[in-house]
Amino acid sequence: MLNRQITKVLKENLQFPESTNLQQRGIADKIEDQCAEVLKQNFEDVTPPRSRRSIEDVNVGDVYVDIKTSDAALNFKMPNMISIDRLRKLDKDLIYSFVIYDSDKKAILDTFSLYVYELNWEHLAIQNLGKGQLQIKNMAEFLKSPTSNMTKDQWLSTLQEKAIDFYRKVQNDAMKRQAEWEKFV
Q: What does pLDDT average to over the chain?
């Protein structure tokens, strides 16, 4: 599968970038750029993202690839993945390539690639951002068991259930806030 090929290529070719005077986001940007370059060098049909706001960092064939970096030197992280509305409307597969690095040790610790529907729901949440944002609840816990045993259809069914639950909660919260404002005047 393509995700395994991407993992292999990144593991064999990624190196921690020159990072003198860079903050965490600068290091992450350099790693993401390096990933895109490695993929271009090792796969035939690699194209850039469709736009600046695209979900993908690169396209490999007819698959979106979004590179997610995580600095192990930082304590708690809850990375945003994708808007659930955009996820619902995807027109082709999406692979997340995770690159775990340590900015203190200046090392790439691990990299792995998963189709979005392989992400373990135990570590995912839908948060109240925009129309709902799929998010990893705790990156350290996610890294212990990132993959799901669900089929793609089961995963998408769970997404649907969790999205409906999320919108019910948002609706209830909005009604409570509205009631508080009605009492205010």
A: 92
Q: Of 137, 153, 162, 57, which Cα lies nearest the Cα of 99?
A: 57
The one-letter amino acid code at 106 reads K
Distance separating alpha carbons of residues 183 and 180, to the nearest angstrom: 5
Alpha-carbon Rg for the chain, nearest whole angstrom, is: 18
Residue 126's CB is within 10 A of a number of other CB atoms, namely 21
Residue with tokens 């691990």: 110
Nearest 5°: phi and psi at 113? -125, 135
Tell me the H-state helices in 43-146.
84-88, 139-144
DSSP SS3 for 150? coil
Q: What is the pLDDT of residues 87-134, one digit of tens each?
A: 999 999 999 999 999 988 999 999 999 999 999 999 999 998 888 999
Kindly list the domain boundaries of the chain, sorted by start residue.
2-184
What is the rounded distance in angstroms from the CA atom of residue 29 to the CA atom of residue 33?
Answer: 6
Helices of type H across 14-151: 24-42, 84-88, 139-144
Instruction: Write out the two tokens for 41.
Output: 């060098």
The neighbour count for residue 51, using CB atoms within 10 Å, is 8
Q: What are phi and psi of 7, to 5 degrees?
A: -55, -50
* Residue whose structure tokens are 């919260």: 173
